[in-house]
Amino acid sequence: GAGVSQSPSNKVTEKGKDVELRCDPISGHTALYWYRQRLGQGLEFLIYFQGNSAPDKSGLPSDRFSAERTGESVSTLTIQRTQQEDSAVYLCASSLIHRGYGYTFGSGTRLTVV
Amino acid sequence: QQQVKQSPQSLIVQKGGISIINCAYENTAFDYFPWYQQFPGKGPALLIAIRPDVSEKKEGRFTISFNKSAKQFSLHIMDSQPGDSATYFCAASRSNDYKLSFGAGTTVTVRA
């Protein structure tokens, strides 16, 4: 696609429910990243995919968070048993090569846990 | 631990004025320093970037100044326009790394 697409754009969920956030990267981009943006804070790295494997999951805050990527394309970030502190904008980015330059971000999913 | 510290948190400038945002980093291995611009409801978009072999880079009204010895870099927005109203993030990375370390962001408001 022309850009990185994320869905849904907004999600309100009840505490304790599971949520799935989707990212469609730019076609041909082998590297994919998830970042979290809390209100008034910078972006926090969550996880990095190279192809379908995730060599760096170091930013996932707890075992309630998981992510997968299939077909070197779509990625899904799953948060189980959501908590209020999970409320944030979740941003996905992709790049042609796995370097800090060349990121293209999606518009994000705003998650609100009530 | 925040590897990139950004200030101020917010600023207001009159149309035509200069906006200045400052960032400081700790990791001397960082050698790529981008600035991202984010409008409400949108993802961050790369605005301008610099590497430590130059002290300044200018693109249109946007200039990055880089001070390697002080481990600081700054973004100057000249002749600020209302359309520049956005949140600006500085970031840093090692050129052989995939991960960006971001500052906390600066919300710039340009008053007409």
Q: What does the model show?
A:
The complex is a heterodimer of chains A (114) and B (112). By secondary structure, chain A is mainly beta. Chain A is 0% helix and 50% strand. In chain A, the strands form 2 sheets. In chain A, strands 2, 4, 5, 6, 9, 10 and 11 form a 7-stranded mixed beta sheet that branches. The radius of gyration of chain A is 13 Å and the shape is globular. The model of chain A has no long low-confidence stretch (mean pLDDT 94). By secondary structure, chain B is mainly β. Helices cover 0% and strands 53% of the residues of chain B. In chain B, the strands form 2 sheets. In chain B, strands 2, 4, 5, 9, 10 and 11 form a 6-stranded mixed beta sheet that branches. In chain B, strands 1-3-8-7-6 form a 5-stranded antiparallel beta sheet, with no helix packed on it. Chain B is globular, with a radius of gyration of 13 Å. Chains A and B meet through strand 4, strand 5 and strand 9 of A and strand 5 and strand 10 of B.
Which percent range describes the beta-strand content of chain B?
over 45%
Total count of strands of chain A? 11
Low-confidence stretches of chain A: none
Poorly predicted segments of chain B: none
Residue share in helix of chain B: under 10%
Q: Strand-and-helix sequence of chain A, N→C?
A: EEEEEEEEEEE
How many distinct helices of chain A?
0
What structural class should be given to the helix and strand makeup of chain B?
mainly beta
Shape of chain A: globular
The string of secondary-structure elements of chain B, in order, is EEEEEEEEEEE
**Shape summary of chain B:** globular
What is the structural class of chain A? mainly beta
Number of strands of chain B: 11
Number of helices of chain B: 0
Computed CA radius of gyration of chain A, to the nearest angstrom: 13 Å
> What gap, in angstroms, lies between the N and C termini of chain B?
38 Å
The description of the largest β-sheet of chain B is: 6 strands, mixed
Radius of gyration of chain B: 13 Å
Oligomeric state, counting identical vs distinct chains: heterodimer
